[in-house]
Amino acid sequence: MYTSVRDLPGGPPPPGRSTTRVGGTVVALGTVSLLTDVSSEMVTAVLPLYLTMALGLSPLAFGVLDGLYQGVTVLVRLLGGYVADRFARPKVTAQVGYGLSAVCKLGLLAVSSPTGIGAVLAVDRTGKGLRTAPRDALIAAAVPEELLGRAFGVHRAMDTAGALLGPLVAFALLLYLPDDYDSVFLTSAAFAAAGCTVLWAFVRERPAVAGAVAVRLRSLAGLVRDVSLRRVALAALALGALTVSDGFLYLLLRDRDAVSATAFPLLFVGTAVAYLVLAVPLGRLADRVGRVPVLVGGHGALLLCYAALRWGAGLPGPALLVLVLGALGVYYAATDGVLAALAASLTPAPLRGSGIALVQTALAAGRLVSAVLFGLLWSALDQDTAMTVFVAALVAGLPVTWRLLRDAENGTRRAPVASGG
Amino acid sequence: MAERPDRTTRTRPDLRGTDAGPGRARVVAVVVVLVLLLAGTGGYLAWSRSAQVRAAASAADAEAGRTRLAVDDVLAVPHLVVRNTEPGPSYGKIALVPVSDPAGPRAIVDLACARVAASPRAGLCLQEVPGLVTTYRSILLDASMRVVSTTELGGIPSRARMSAAGSWAASTVFVTGHAYTDAQFSTRTVLTDVPTGRELPDLEQWVTTRDGVPVTAVDRNYWGVSFIGDGPGFYATLGTGGRRLLVRGDASTRTMQVVADDGACPSVSPDAAHVVYKQQDAQSGSDRFVAWSADSGRLTALPEGRVVDDQVAWLDADTVAYAVGRGVAATVDSDVWAAPIDGRPATRLVPDASSPSVVVPARD
Asked: Which of A59, A64, A262 lies nearest to residue B135, judging by beta carbons?
C-alpha cells in the first residue's frame, strides 16, 4: 500500500515546492510515528503481564495506575499546541514530546515500585500529549491545503502500522528471551530513539509565515471566536459524545460469542488492519469530494457497526466480527486524519497547533462524556437499551453536526490571528 | 515574532528553506546513530540470551545434583502443594513437599503452572502457554495430580483456590482488553463445579447486595475466592470505586453480600473459625493481614510487612502460609513463610516455592 506514498502529493506541484520533498516530510513524520508506535505498543502489550506477573500488583493498584494516566493527556495536548504556536516551534515541541516518551522507556528499566511506574507512565503520556498537535501542524505545513487529507492518511497509515508491529516485536523478544522484560523496555527505548533521530534529521521546522503576528494567549481567544473553527470543535465534541468507546464494543462482541476469550486481545488488530488499509484512500477521497461528507460517511459506518451489534443477533459470529471490526476501521480511516485535515484547513498557519489541538481535545472530551454515559446506561438499564439510545442519538445528531461542519467549511475563512493583535 | 531560523536554514529562513534536503552531515549523523542503536541493542540482546543459556546450563547441573522424592510417596502423607521456583528445568512446575520436612527434598510433577491449588481429591493449575500471542489455560487435576480436563482461560492467572474436599474450584484472571486508543483492565473470577466440570457464569453476573440493596456499579471487579469448608459458601473480594470490600457468597444461589468495608484476599480457616484477609494500613497505605475471629469478632493484625500477592493458605487451624518474593528479582524466586495468627512473627517454611496449598490425604 506504500506505493501511494511515492506519488504524494501528486497533481501539479505548487511553485517553489518539489513533490518528492514535500512528500518526504510527511513520510518522515510517518516514519517517526511508526517507530514511536512500535516503541510504545511494545510496552503497552507487555505492561499488563509485567505488572501482574513480575511485580505482582493487586488488581486495584493497576486500576489506579490506568486511571491516573488516562486523564493526563487531554490538557497537555492543548498546551503542546499552544507552545508550538507561541514560539513558532512545532518541531522542537514535538521533539520534546517524543524525547520525553523515549526517556520514559529507559525509566521503566530503573523503577520497580508501583508509584514509580505510575509516575513514568504519566510522564510518557505527557510526552504523547505534547507532541500530537505540533506534529499534525508540521504535516499540515508540509503540503498544500488541497492535499491535507491524503497527507494525514499517509501519516495515520504508517502510525497504525507501527501500532500493529509493536506487540509482534515485543512477543517475539519474549520468545527469544523468556521473562526478560528489561530487554523489551531497552529495545522499545531504541525504537523511540530512532524515531527521535529521524525527526531531528528529516523534518524541518515550520517555515516562518511572512508578516504573521506573534502568537499570544489573546490569539487563542481569537481562535475560539472564529466561527468556523468553533463549529468544527462543537461538532467534534458532539460526535465524540455520540460515539461508544471501542472497549464497550469489544465487550459486546464477546457477549455475543463472536470471539473467544483467547482472541479477545486481538480484536484491535482487526480494526487497525482495516484502518491501515483505508486511511490513504479515504484521505484522498476527502480531498476530492470534501472532508465533511467523508467525516459524516465514517459515522454512517459507525451506525452500521452499532446496528449490527444491537440487532444482528441472527448473524453468524464471524460475519458479525468482520462487519463490526471493518466498520470500525472505516470509521477511524474516515474521521481521525480527516478531522485533523479539516481543522488544519480552517486555521491560519501560525495557529495550526492550537487549532488542531482544540478540535482534538473537543473530540476527546466528548468521548469521555460518552464513556461515562454509556457506562451509566449499561448499569442502570442494560446493554441493549444503552446501544438503542446511542443509535437513536447518533441518528438524530448526525444531520445537525453535518450542518455545523458544512457551514464551517463553507463559512468565510477569517483569519483569527488578524483580530488577535 | 519569536521566529528564529532553523539551524540548517539559517541563511534562508524563508519558504524555500524547507525544500532543501537534509544536509550530508545530518544524514551521516543519522546513519551513525541508527547503526549504534542497532549494534547496541542487538549486542545487549545477544549477551542477555547467552547469559540465559549459561544460567540454564548451570541450573541443569544443579538439578542433576538434587535429591527428588517420588510423587506417590509424598501424596500419601500430609504435604504442601507449591509452585517450584528453584532455578532449573523444574522451575514453575508443581512440587510436593512433606509437611514433616518442608525445607527438605521435594517431588516434582511435570506440569508448569503460574498458580496452583490442591485438595485431597482434586487440584487446579492455571497455566501460561507462551507463544507469539500468549494464551492461558485452566487445568483440573485428579487426586494424583494427573490432568482431567483443560479449558481456555481469558486472561493472566492471578488466583487459584479449591474447596476443602475438592468439590469446587475458583480462578481469577486479569482481563486486558486492548481498545484501540486506551488500555482497559478488569478481573474475571469463575467458579467451577468440579464433579461435572461445569463453569458457572463469572461473578460479575451474580447478584451482590449491600444491606439488602443490589450493588450495580459498572466498575465491579471480583477476585480472590476462598471457600468455606467444601463450599458452596465462600468469601471473595469486590473492588469498586477505588475500594475493596469483602463479600460472602453462595454458589448454589449465585448471590453475594458485602460483609466488610475494607477487605481483600480472604482465606477461611479449615474449621471456619477464622478468616485472614488484607486490610489497608491507614498510615502507610500498604496492605497488612488481619485475622478475624468468628467467635469474638476481634481482629488481630499479623506483623508481616512484605508484599504478598496472594491469599494465605492454612497450615493448621492457627497457622497460615504464604509466598514472599526474594532478592532483586522478587518476581522470579520466592519462599513460602508460615505465620501464627496470634500476631507472632513469620518463619520460613519452604524455600524456592510459591502458591502454596496444604493437603491432608483423605483416608478413604
From this structure: A262
What pLDDT digit, counting tens, does each position of B135-177 carry? 899 999 999 999 999 998 888 888 999 999 999 999 999 876 5
Q: Are B5 and B17 in contact (CB under 8 A)?
A: yes
| B290 vs B300: CA distance, rounded Å | 5
Q: What is the mean pLDDT of each run of 10 residues along chain A (421 residues)?
A: 39 41 81 96 82 58 51 79 90 95 91 77 88 94 91 95 92 85 94 95 78 68 80 93 85 77 75 94 94 95 93 84 94 95 90 91 86 79 88 95 89 45 34
Residues of B in contact with A64 (CB under 8 A): 242
Rg (CA), chain B: 26
Residues of A in contact with B3 (CB under 8 A): 88, 208, 212
Task: Give the highest mean pLDDT range of A410-419, B123-132, B351-360.
Answer: B351-360
Please give the distance of CA A293 from its chain centroid, rounded to a whole number.
20
Cβ contacts of A246 on chain B, cutoff 8 Å? 179-181
Helices and strands: H and E segment counts in chain A = 16, 0
Three-class SS of residue A316?
A: coil
Interface of A with B in 309-328 (CB under 8 A): 328
Q: Which of A24, A168, A247 sits opposite B177 (nearest CB)?
A: A247
What whole-number distance in Å separates Cα of residue A107 and Cα of residue A124?
10
Q: Which of residues 135-164 of B touch A (CB under 8 A)?
A: 135-136, 152-156, 158
DSSP B185: -
Work out the minimum CA distance from A24 to partner chain B, whole angstroms: 9
pLDDT of B63: 84
Domains of chain A: 1-207 (1.20.1250.20), 214-413 (1.20.1250.20)
Tell me the pLDDT tens digit for each residue of B189-243: 999 999 999 999 999 999 999 999 999 887 788 999 999 999 899 999 998 877 8
Residues A204, B218: C-beta atoms closer than 8 Å: no
Average pLDDT of B58-76?
91
Q: Which residues does chain A have within 8 Å of residue B8's beta carbon, measured at their own beta carbons?
A: 204
Q: Residues B104-117: pLDDT tens digits?
A: 999 999 999 999 99
* Predicted structure pTM score: 0.75
DSSP B282: T
- Contact between A218 and A350 (Cβ < 8 Å): no
